[in-house]
Prior knowledge:
The chain is of the alpha/beta class. The protein has 5 helices and 5 strands.
Amino acid sequence: MLIIDDVAVNRTVIAEWLNRLGFETIEAASGLEGLAKAQSERPALIITDIVMPGMDGSSHAAVASDAGLRRSAIIAVTASPSGRDEKKSRAAGVNAVSPKPVEFDRLLAWIAGVA
């Protein structure tokens, strides 16, 4: 699983939780770094923040689908309560959208549903 977030603590919390459950994780600090890692590693699942400097999660999802990464499921996380972010993300190819702070039971259910 690839976790993309510009805030290190956000990436670490999700990665440590998933690692304890037996998942292997890769981390990226930006959308561009995440795209490069997605292209080289071909993860089954990408968990990405929606809002990041330079390239946000929705842009990452759109580029990833154009770059032949359609087999990677994408879960976007957002601190914004706006339904607009979810609509934009889903239109870009995101499979699920999770509010921040991440509810790990819900995230695990989504992982089970998209992986």
